[in-house]
Amino acid sequence: MRFFQSIRWRVQLWHSVLLAVILSVLGILFYFHEQRGYFNDVDRELLSAIPELLPRFSYRGGGPRRPDQRPGRGSPQDFEQDAAAAQLDPDDRRDRGIIELFARDGLFFVVWDANGRLLIASEQAPQGIPMVTGIHHPDPPLIQTRNGNREVVDATPELACVIAGMNLDVLHARLARLGRNIIFGCSGIFLGGLAVGWWLTGRATRPFSTMRAVASRVAGGELQARVPVRAGNHDETSTLAHALNDTFARLEESFEELRSFTAEASHELRTPITAALAETQLALRKERTAEQYRETIQVAQQNLKQLGKLAETLLDLSRLDAAELVIELEEADLSELVKQSVEELSPIISAAQAKLALDCPPARVKCDPVRIRQVITNLVANAIQHSPAGVAINIKTLATNSAVELVVSDNGPGIAEADLPNIFKRFYRSAEARRESREGAGLGLAITHGIVTRHGGKIRVKSQRGQGTTFTVELPVK
Amino acid sequence: VIILAMRLLVVEDNANILSVLERGLREEGYFVDTSSDGIEARYKLHNWEYDGVVLDLSLPGVDGLTLLKEFRKDGGATPVLLLTARGTTRDKITGLDDGADDYLVKPFDLEELIARIRSMIRRAMANLSPEIDLGGVKINPRKLTVEHDGKSIELTKQEYALLIALAQRRGRIITREFLFDRIYDREENVDSNLLDVLIYNVRRKVGKDLIQTRRGHGYLIP
User: Fold this and answer.
1) How close does chain A come to B82, measured CA to CA in Å?
2) Which of A428, A463, A460 is nearest to A444 (CA)?
3) C-beta separation of A306 from A433 below 8 A
4) Terminus of chain B with fewer CB atoms < 10 Å: N or C?
5) Which of A274, A286, A436 sits opposite B17 (nearest CB)?
6) What is the pLDDT of residues A384-439, one digit of tens each?
7) Do A282 and B85 touch (CB under 8 A)?
8) Touching check for A250 and chain B: CB below 8 Å?
């Protein structure tokens, strides 16, 4: 199976694309969120450092400047004094706090006095960093990024510019690390997702593989193969499996029917062939008298006739099966058809000394007269064949608004209860019929049933041992 | 005229086929009993000893395979040829495994059936040679001739049947009923004392000591 023809592969492909997109978007969003957070943190930190720095350098050294003392007016002596005072003293508690704060990676500060002279630059401050002009007390602190540094700039009347800054290289290194971690993390999740997806799609499509395997076994002739279904499971695959199993069962049934039909039909065909063949072969073994030849020919003829009848019956059955039996509907009177059938049967009726009683008022119905006559003939001939001589047979026709009925009843030996459900089945012969070696292949009632059904009608049988048998055929008027 | 001194049972539910088989086998010189259903066949198999059985599989009453299995279980050794309209290999295997000696599918050739019965019986009876030499008495079943000390002897049909029935089963004690079934057809209404007359006549022609009497059991040629 090529991978793009497999649902599993296709689902897996879609799954991976979707997963990759989602993870990328999430990763990118997370990265930028974190980046902003980092900058906020740095800004907050730098901002919080400003209040530490301002009082320290404004009020140390030459003491607090008077407010009226203008910037830039300080003498060089003043400046040296201020610069000296600005040096941080590790022994001083407050200075130690500032030293420790700016000892941290990348943090620095630079302070210029009111005259714009560099008072102090911390250890990590970039060399020759220019002063920021244009910020005046009491403007809020300015936050900016300049030359790869994040800077918070403020000023006081005593100090022209105070910068608390951070070298962004450190931040960028941290962000690069974060990016790498995000990529590794997302790749891990992606691979894990693929594995889980593969497992899930495998689980979801496994029933299909099973069904396919079972279906090919069935196609290969193993008709009794079925898809295993857990009881009480009603999800999509189980429903499908049930549907498939039903189909397989139906298929097996039809095959079985066909097989048994073929076997039975061949059995029934072989019997008269065997009889005729053996009879003629016996006759030809040596010279016989004319009388013996005549007998042989008669036996052969009788068997050939039987064979012909059988062939016709089988053809009728196969036509019924293929729905090819043409039913030519025309307006007919059931009572007329009964009379014609009885006429046709008169030789066997008189041979069996059967007593027929007809109670047949006209009953008009749309039907195929040839086929319905066949039905009547079959039923009456059946009654005669399965009863001792002198049987009484009643034939009645009945017309109602929606249907006409034909009732054929006899006072013969009746049908055993065990045989009743089977009498319309093909090749079914009751135990007695077989024991008494009666002629007939057990197809007459099957055909009768088929014809009536094709007319949209129904055939019923009522019988009891020793009480006779009644067949009722009901044909719809329309 | 062929005299085999053998009796067959033919079981077949189709009257036409049964009748042909009966006539054909009679022409071949067999005595033939017939049966058209399983129950009657079971009775006959149980009560008489046959030299061969032709058995149809689909029978009313009891089907052929069941009958065959029962017969073999009860120790019946008579060769059986199955006759059936079902010709699949599986059916054949089932039939042969259940104790059949041969198998023929309908429609069959009558000559083939007769030949198969003949060979089936020959296999079952070990000493069925073209010429039977009983020491002093030589029988040729094909020519229907008997020689005693090199001289040809004339025997009637019944005498010949008696001699050959015993000669083919040399060394076995044969009951009077068994002999009777192989000399007379069932339709012939004969007194069983006729058998004693026949024995007497044969002994007179081929010598007194050839056929021995086992009182209460039957006769044998040792």
Assistant:
1) 15
2) A428
3) no
4) N
5) A274
6) 888 888 888 989 888 888 888 899 988 888 888 888 888 888 878 776 666 565 56
7) no
8) no
